[in-house]
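Researcher: Go.
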Amino acid sequence: MLLRHGQSTWNEQNLFTGWEDVGLTALGEQEAAAAGRLLRDEPGLDLRVLHTSVLSRAIRTAELALAEAGRSWLAVRRSWRLNERHYGDLTGRNKQETAERFGREQLVAWRRSYDVPPPPMPEGDPRRSDADPRYRDVPPELLPATECLSDVVARVRPWYDEAIAPDLRDEGARGGAVLVAAHGNSIRALRMHLESIAPEAIPAVEIPTGIPYLVELDDALAVVSSRYLGDADAAAQAADRVARQAG
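Model: Structure:
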């Protein structure tokens, strides 16, 4: 199960968020609770393990969803590798204003290309994560100043191989399901790997907030089926709203 966090305060303001640690809006909390009801009502779904990023909006979404689903007791594993993409010097900037300043073509390249990172966050910038205690055990050379999607894929993949895949092979989930509560781009990276989505196709894949995405796998961890829980049209409309954030 892949679940992007509910609407955050910076989503509401149409700002590039990245590694900035912001909370959920009231709507985001409602989305998280609604996601929990979908998880609860899905026939045969037996959630056993939770993986999250170390950012509050994903953690809070998981807490609200699992409380609604009656699974607050799940074992939890957190990793910075599941964080949102680092937007570098775009962090905190309004997407519409960025489009007006740099041009829509450049904005699209920064937002949705596979290998074009935004300008890096400068050394000494107070927005940097170097001194954040949640990253104190991360080698400094691994902490990004900016990322493109290929960078996110490169950091998410080791966590999938070393932590998520063993749970999917029943070593941790004991025959049940694994829930990953994360972010638009870290979930996009996981879907690229799981569903063998090509780099040239991934820009068209939008990840709506607060709607669980079910990926059924066989014993070899190959995809058997995938779909959003609940109303498919509602999920498509939510994804379209994400695509239109820059105007």
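Model: Residues 2-211+228-243 form a domain with the Rossmann fold fold (CATH 3.40.50.1240).
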